[in-house]
């Protein structure tokens, strides 16, 4: 298990915010990342399509001999995690929703938890269900309020983190959550951490933001620490990472490095025929 990489996939480049957190939490681990940039976004697709994409993405990562799968896409985590678990054939699978729900219930003080994400994630009700289950476990009374914020995705990719338009849109999207006086807000999309500052300013200092990537990376670190403690895991000294994409769109490098916070590995192109094929 020691030399095998961690597999991470997302519908596009947004999952790089999760990889950024993994670099911080488990710096000696190799990462194989797949961004399905040719078929992004998943958030507007039907559930059946997202499930098929999730299965295909997992099969690609499995071909690289990964030791666990991180489904960095919140839409997949909300609607297709069972497909990932089935395709992973017994390997550990970490989604975004369960760990976030646990963390949100843990840190909330007044029990009012907000959720923002893509239309598909919000429509699934997956976060609400997970928070309700976690509330019973932690014996807390929690209320959830959710809001789809689709425009946050292009704003993050454009790098408009301090633009007046972003401030106005954030105020519009988050007004109802502020009125309801939530004290905890789940950033239920991998793009949203790029806009952390403007979201925090809009919500105010009393609201704790939950970064799904950071929570998932912490869980990965805890799992690997258990492996090391059991003598089944030793860290790599000089990990080499692999970046796979199904398309290389314009501004790909700029956006990816903004999300990752550092230079990216050279992207390798894969195409879907009857299965994923690595291009020369």
Please provide a written account of the structure.
The model has no long low-confidence stretch (mean pLDDT 91). The chain has 12 helices and 11 strands. The protein starts with 5 loop residues before the first strand and ends with a strand. Helix 1 (16-25) packs parallel to helix 11 (212-229), helix 2 (47-62) runs parallel beside helix 4 (81-87) and helix 5 (97-107) packs across helix 11 (212-229). With 280 residues, the chain is an alpha/beta fold. It has a 7-stranded mixed β-sheet with strand order 4-3-1-2-9-10-11, with helices on both faces. Strands 6-5-7-8 form a 4-stranded parallel β-sheet, with helices on both faces. Strand 9, helix 12 and strand 10 form a beta-alpha-beta unit.
Helix content: 40-55%
The tally of beta strands, per DSSP, is 11
Overall outline: globular
Could you describe the largest sheet, including whether it forms a barrel? Answer: 7 strands, mixed
**What is the radius of gyration computed over CA atoms, rounded to a whole number of angstroms?**
18 Å
Query: Number of helical runs?
Result: 12
Distance between the termini: 28 Å
* Assembly state of the chains shown: single chain
Structural class: alpha/beta
Binned strand content: 15-25%
Give the neighbour order of strands across the main sheet: 4-3-1-2-9-10-11
Segments where pLDDT lies below 50 for 5+ residues? Answer: none
- Give, in order, the helices and strands: EHEHEHHEHEHHEHHEHEHEHEE
Mean pLDDT: 91
Please write out the topology:
Elements: E1 6-10, H1 16-25, E2 31-35, H2 47-62, E3 68-71, H3 74-79, H4 81-87, E4 93-94, H5 97-107, E5 112-117, H6 119-124, H7 126-138, E6 143-148, H8 152-158, H9 164-179, E7 184-188, H10 196-203, E8 208-211, H11 212-229, E9 242-245, H12 252-260, E10 267-272, E11 276-278
Parallel strand pairs: 1-2, 1-3, 2-9, 3-4, 5-6, 5-7, 7-8, 9-10
Antiparallel strand pairs: 10-11
């Amino acid at each position: 298990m020691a030399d095998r990489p961690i597999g991470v996939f997302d519908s596009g480049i947004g999952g790089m915010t999760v990889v950024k957190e993994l670099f911080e939490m488990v710096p000696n681990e190799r990462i194989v990342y797949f961004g399905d940039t040719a078929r992004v976004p998943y958030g507007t697709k039907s559930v059946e399509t997202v499930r098929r994409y999730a299965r295909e993405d997992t099969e690609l990562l499995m071909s690289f001999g990964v030791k666990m799968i991180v489904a960095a896409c919140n839409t997949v985590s909300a609607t297709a995690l069972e497909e990932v678990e089935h395709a992973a054939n017994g390997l550990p699978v970490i989604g975004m929703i369960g760990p976030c729900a646990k963390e949100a219930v843990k840190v909330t003080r007044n029990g009012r938890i907000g959720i923002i994400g893509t239309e598909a994630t919000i429509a699934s009700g997956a976060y609400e269900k997970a928070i309700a289950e976690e509330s019973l476990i932690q014996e807390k009374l929690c209320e959830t309020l959710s809001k789809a914020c689709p425009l946050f995705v292009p704003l993050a990719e454009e790098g408009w983190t301090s633009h007046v338009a972003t401030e106005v849109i954030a105020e519009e999207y988050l007004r109802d959550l502020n009125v309801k006086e939530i004290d905890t807000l789940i950033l239920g999309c991998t793009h949203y951490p790029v806009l952390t500052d403007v979201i925090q300013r809009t919500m105010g200092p009393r609201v704790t933001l939950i970064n799904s990537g950071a929570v998932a990376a912490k869980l990965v670190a805890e799992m690997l620490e258990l492996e090391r403690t059991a003598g089944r895991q030793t860290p790599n000294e000089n990990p080499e990472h692999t970046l796979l994409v199904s398309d290389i769109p314009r501004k790909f490098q700029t956006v990816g490095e903004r999300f990752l916070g550092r230079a990216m590995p050279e992207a390798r192109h894969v195409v879907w025929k009857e299965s994923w094929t690595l291009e020369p």
